[in-house]
Structure formats: C-alpha cells, structure tokens
Amino acid sequence: MASLRYLFDENLRGPPWRAIQWHNRRGVYPLDAVRVGDLLDLPLGSLDPQIIAWAEAQSRILISADRDTLASHLRDHLAAGHHSPGIFLVRSQSTIPEVIEFPTDAAYASTADEWRDFITYIP
Asked: What's the whole-model pTM score?
C-alpha cells in the first residue's frame, strides 16, 4: 500500500492527470491522488496559500508546475508555524512518464517524513 497521498495542482489538469488516471486503472502501484478543482473546498482558482494549507490539513503532497510562486508561499506558510507534507515541482522539461514515475516511486519506497516541509523537483 502507498504511504503517500497527493494533491495535483490545477496546472496539471490535462495530459498529466489523464496519465495518472490511466496509471491507476492498470491497478499496479496506484496513486492516491486528487486535484484542485474537483473538490468542493478547493475549487479551481484557489490561491497558493489556500492550496498549501489544504494540503497540510489533508496530509497530501502538492504536485505542481508552478515554479514561480510556490517556494515563497511555502516559506511564508512555514514561517507562520505551519508544516507541509511537501511539494513536488514539475520541471518544464519533465515528461509525463516522469510525472507519474517519481510520485509512484516515492509513494511505495519512502515515508511521509522524508518529504515534510521540502520542495523536491521532478525528475
């Protein structure tokens, strides 16, 4: 069973999300993943600080392609005494298979404590 849970940012709604759904339908190492915009309490257009706070409350690592602002919002979140399950940032040159493989490997071969309060880049 996977030890990590994920929240996909709305900027990964297209092909990456469809690839996650295909991956999960295969039934081999499925990911526990939800996405911004599919949740009543986290609609499309949610601001980064709201997303980070929601991810903390739900113990979900945020996966996003927002390399411009998330680092500063995470710093503010941590400075306010909060924590984060972690953030996986997708590099612009990352392939869709890498966007699936990295969180899958992390979910089945690591623990939540290894990612807490850190930003990690995919791949």
From this structure: 0.95
Strand order in the sheet with 32-35: 32-35, 5-8, 61-64, 87-90, 119-122
Is residue 86 within 8 A of residue 55, CB to CB? The reply is: no
Distance CA 18, CA 81 (A): 35
What single letter denotes the amino acid at residue 77?
A: H
SS3 content of the chain, % helix, strand, coil (to 5): 45, 20, 40
Tokens matching residue 26 = 């295969």
The first and second tokens of residue 44, run together, are 């499309």
Alpha carbons 54 and 82: distance in angstroms, whole number: 12
Tokens of 9: 């940012």
What angle do helix axes 70-79 and 48-58 make, rounded to 10 degrees?
60
Q: pLDDT of 84-119, one tens digit each?
A: 999 999 999 999 999 999 999 999 999 999 999 999
Report how far residue 20's alpha carbon sits from residue 78's, in angstroms, rounded to the nearest whole number: 29
CB of 56 closer than 8 Å to CB of 110: no
